[in-house]
Amino acid sequence: xxxxxxxxxxxxxxxxxxxxxxxxxxxxxxxxxxxxxxxxxxxxxxxxxxxxxxxxxxxxxxxxxxxxxxxxxxxxxxxxxxxxxxxxxxxxxxxxxxxxxxxxxxxxxxxxxxxxxxxxxxxxxxxxxxxxxxxxxxxxxxxxxxxxxxxxxxxxxxxxxxxxxxxxxxxxxxxxxxxxxxxxxxxxxxxxxxxxxxxxxxxxxxxxxxxxxxxxxxxxxxxxxxxxxxxxxxxxxxxxxxxxxxxxxxxxxxxxxxxxxxxxxxxxxxxxxxxxxxxxxxxxxxxxxxxxxxxxxxxxxxxxxxxxxx
Amino acid sequence: xxxxxxxxxxxxxxxxxxxxxxxxxxxxxxxxxxxxxxxxxxxxxxxxxxxxxxxxxxxxxxxxxxxxxxxxxxxxxxxxxxxxxxxxxxxxxxxxxxxxxxxxxxxxxxxxxxxxxxxxxxxxxxxxxxxxxxxxxxxxxxxxxxxxxxxxxxxxxxxxxxxxxxxxxxxxxxxxxxxxxxxxxxxxxxxxxxxxxxxxxx
Lengths: 310, 202
Description:
Radius of gyration of chain B: 18 Å
Shape of chain A: elongated
Structural class of chain A: mainly alpha
Helix content of chain A: over 70%
Number of helices of chain A: 11
Structural class of chain B: mainly alpha
Order of helices and strands of chain B: HHHHHHHHHH
Strand content of chain A: under 5%
Number of strands of chain A: 0
Number of strands of chain B: 0
Order of helices and strands of chain A: HHHHHHHHHHH
Distance between the termini of chain A: 84 Å
Oligomer: heterodimer
Helix content of chain B: over 70%
Strand content of chain B: under 5%
Largest interface: A-B, 50 and 81 residues
Distance between the termini of chain B: 23 Å
């Protein structure tokens, strides 16, 4: 009794093996065992015959006639008009416009700085040059970051578009029938390698970023652009205001009278400069603005020319 | 295949890899019936199958540098199967699955049945049997049909089918077993077809 039950259950296993046997999907040990079983089992022999007949009839089915030709035309095969790498190319006039803007802004910047330097006190000129460098650094950083960010997001868009389109029409892997899964996202993989390069280009192209210097902390550590370095070359790290403070500060108590006098002196000096300070602020704002515009224009010109050359 | 004087697939593939669109299109001519039929059987819908087949050839052309040799048709069929999978996912075709035998039955079409050295009568009988079998395939569930088509007609491995359909190998096996069992039942219910199938096997 028990062996009969066991026989039924185990025969289902043999039937499953029979299907796999026909498909050539049995592992070596199971294969030999099944062939041994087959010699003495009529049920399995019949099953094998039926499955074999079924397969033959399926394979004998005629192919469908394609409703049209699937030949490829050159238009189909041509890569998409949108450039593969990076953001869409800016229009032709952009380069010219960027050049002109850069020129005007640089000229304006230099002239204002010059006038300022000539009319102001040497110390003040140094101050202004220092703060200009600071602002130039900040200004340089801002458009650089924006551009890098902009181009990165453009890159991302391009990648997404490429990734989604060919992603849905994946290219083939070479898979001989004996091995396994044909398809990886072959196209999107190559698309991401294509866009990786321009990302590197875009981030390398803008000038290296600097950290903004606090005012009056000493000479700038990096020269973010030619402009800023041109102005800061004239910059002398002497700072009369803080110099006074330094001299005044470490006096011992016995010298408090003189210290107070020094402090008063300094306060007077600062008060005296209060009025021209307002003008200075205005001029500094103008200089900062011109610096920003000039840098932005130079960077845009670089990109525009770069894209035009491609 | 009886191609005789035409250049072999290998030679056309070499030319196509070198950039000849003409050579590739000769390959398209040669294999488009097989690829389209596969897509049609997997998708059960003519428009979907057309889209999938066209995309398959475009995809194959772009991926030629990745074909390293071996059976070119098998390679194309795998691309076709993947395109069909994407077509299903992309469009979620809600159109009713058309009857496969209707789609395959084109009286004006030239015979594309492989030449097995049979007599004219045998050929006609086999064509009729083929048409009936297509109809029976339509009666399977979509998953069973796809598994049977890929394994029994196009010799895909279980693992490949599993990957394509997003199922486990065990599920694929069970679909094949059940699909075959169902087909067997359907064939047995049709005496003439049953006889023809049996004759085919002998």
